[in-house]
Amino acid sequence: MVLIQKGELIFLRLLLPLILGITLGFSLPAQIFIYQLVVWLTVFCMLTLWLTVICYKRFKIYLTRWKPGVVLHLLVFFSGVALTLTNNPELSEKHFSSFDDEELIVAIRSEPKLSNNILRFETEVQQGFSGNSFSKREGSLMIALKLNNTQSYHFGDELLIRGDFNVIDPPLNPYEFDYKTFLANHGISRQAFINESQLKLIGKHKANFLVDKALELRKSYVLKYQEYIHDKQSASVASTLILGYKAELSREVLSAYSKTGTMHVLSVSGMHVGIVFYILNAMLWFMNRNKKLRILRAVIIISLIWFYSLITGFSPSVCRAALMLSMYVLGKAVYRSSNSYNLVATSAVFLLLYNPYFLLDVGFQLSYLAVLGLIYFYPKIYHLFYIRNWIGDKIWSYVALSCAAQLATFPLAMYYFHQFPVYFLLSNLFIVLPVIVIMYLGIAFLFIPWDWALKSLGLLLEKGIMLMDEGLFFIEKLPFANIIKYDSLAFYLSVYASIALLAIAFQHRNKRMLYASLLVGLILISYQSATHIISQKKHFVTFYGLRKNTAFSIFSGKEAYVFSDLDSADKSLAFFVQPCVEAYASRSRYLNLDNSLENNLVFFKENFLRFRDWRMMIWNKSLDNYSFQKQFEVDVVLLSGRPQIKLTELVKNVKFKLLMIDATNADYMIKNWVDEASALSLNYYVLKKNPAYSIPLE
């Protein structure tokens, strides 16, 4: 029958409609009517398919084989939509955001991460207290807890907290990381900022027994690394590389791995699971004598692979690798081979059916693209050259492997992370041997009981990791090591289209496809050239929306001048300001507001700034008692640092077109100025809790 013919590729055929359905499900508004309509359409398709199967021979449906195929694809499509809407927390009638509860009982559902004395963790809301009784509640809540004492909190703990929570704010600055969308992609739309006086620990270790014990075991392994690897940074890398424990990695280490294209090493994924598989496979080599032993070996390997996945946090990329390896091991045990593409598609279908939110996970997307790239591009790149020397062949094999994975992932990686590691081949060739050795030694380290052996192995791991890190730090600092680029999704999809057309052209020796690929490439190059020419002529100033500080940038072509009261190494500057600067400028200069600058473009001294014909005055406390001889004329006045000035007095001394009020001022002062500005019919803009403001300059 047609529905089960070509069964080798059945999951590959069903994956596309499932992805399209899930994508539509995320795009639809969370309304009960839409959900019910989709469910009815799914049921209708199911009944139609059932009737098609029953009447297959009677009505000679086999003469039009496409009909049952269309119905099946529609069923999968609407099932994807329905599944996504079912998992949408906003559709639940018991979602905690629909109630005005005084208190909530929540359970910690992620490993708490500490940063700057703030502990962040995801919780599952279980009950709400209102009207002298507790009622069942649903939904996920992100909690940021300010620590006051040494009380520890762990995965599975139950907390009683106040029912105060907020909708997560969207990003306020250009190209700022979209934390709201990031959490929404994990089913979280609310967060609470609390201190320890606003919560009570009412239960410990209430999570699933296996998960709880696995995370306890991981924590004990992390502590073991920290005990015997004395360099803190090396211990953190070991914990991350082998166990997926990222809580204590420094920004410098993350930056080095990210900018050299080796971030996949610190994200437990297919490579790590594969190494664990090879270790287990080698240890159980003797269980290959008969079918029963092969099946037992498969069960042991699969169980331990999934236990390793559990310890490392069950990330989507780990789940993908574990599921694919499980199917591969099982197939080998019963002497069944399978199509590689269908194996990839099968794992994707099962994971998306388990959790459609995986589709929005960056790791999930990049992981599958990398695998597809390896399957398709690797053999083609590898067979471009034949190298007789064994060592040379292994090096070329790894070069082909890196190129294949990079070719499949770099457009999407640049869309998400806005950078391309120029020396990715060098860095990946450099770390391949150290990573494998560190993985083998690090796993062995966990099971060695003797103190003398642990000290020696710990020292070896420490020196190996330090060598690897120093090498990556060196590559990171090489000239032109990193290309920073911000562009639209449409641009990178066009890059994928060009790559796909080129691949088809070489696969089928099709000139039309080659010309089409070159045409798309030419359009992209023309677009980039035009964008570059236009940006060279642009001049504008951007005031950033910060929480407690002030920052603004002047952009002149591809050059930027950044002014702020923050230190140049401050995390807030890197998070809120730097993305915008990198997006618009290839060169930037930072100045603290206490400094001065004078060149042919910019003059900045004390409270006065001039860029070409545009002028701004920064009114702070130093000008409160200043005596003006005559009225000063500027384009913008920036109120900063809590000055004690009435706007009625300000307009007497300064003539301006726009009044800017930054976040360094108290809320009550901002309110008073807003009231005054409205009464005086002044143009004003408040930066505190508002989006960034840009002014084009001619």
Describe the structure.
- Mean pLDDT is 88; it is low at 1-5.
- Helices cover 52% and strands 17% of the residues.
- Strands 1, 2, 3, 4, 5, 6, 7, 8 and 9 form a nine-stranded mixed β-sheet that branches. A seven-stranded mixed β-sheet has the order 16-17-18-19-21-23-24, with helices on one face.
- It has 21 helices and 25 strands.
- The protein starts with 9 loop residues before the first helix and ends with a strand.
- It has five domains: 7-86; 96-207, Beta Barrel (OB fold (Dihydrolipoamide Acetyltransferase, E2P)), CATH 2.40.50; 212-484, no CATH class; 489-536; 539-696, 4-Layer Sandwich (Metallo-beta-lactamase, Chain A).
- Helix 6 (232-243) packs across helix 16 (451-476).
- The protein is α+β, with helices and mostly antiparallel strands and 698 residues long.
- The radius of gyration is 30 Å and the shape is globular.
Q: What is the strand and helix layout of this fold?
A:
Blueprint: H1 10-27, H2 32-54, H3 66-86, E1 103-108, E2 113-115, E3 118-130, E4 133-136, E5 140-146, E6 158-162, E7 166-167, H4 179-184, E8 188-195, E9 199-203, H5 209-228, H6 232-243, H7 251-259, H8 263-266, H9 270-283, H10 291-311, H11 316-333, H12 340-354, H13 362-382, H14 390-417, E10 419-421, H15 424-447, H16 451-476, E11 482-484, H17 489-508, H18 511-536, E12 539-543, E13 551-556, E14 559-564, H19 571-584, E15 587-592, E16 597-598, E17 602-605, E18 608-611, E19 614-619, E20 632-633, E21 636-639, H20 647-653, E22 654-655, E23 658-661, H21 667-679, E24 684-686, E25 693-696
Parallel strand pairs: 5-8, 14-15, 19-21, 20-22, 21-23, 23-24
Antiparallel strand pairs: 1-3, 1-6, 2-3, 3-4, 3-5, 6-9, 7-8, 10-11, 12-13, 12-25, 13-14, 16-17, 17-18, 18-19
Helix pairs in contact: 1-3, 1-12, 2-3, 5-6, 6-16, 7-16, 9-10, 9-11, 10-11, 11-12, 12-13, 13-14, 14-15, 14-17, 15-16, 17-18
